[in-house]
Amino acid sequence: MFSYFTLKDANEILPVVIQKFKNIESMKNEVSKIQSEMENNPRYMSNFEDYVIKKQELNSAISNLYKSIEELEKMGVMVKSIDEGLLDFPSKRFEEDVWLCWKEGETEIKFWHGKDEGFMGRKPISVSDESLV
Question: What is the DSSP letter of 132?
Answer without folding.
Answer: B
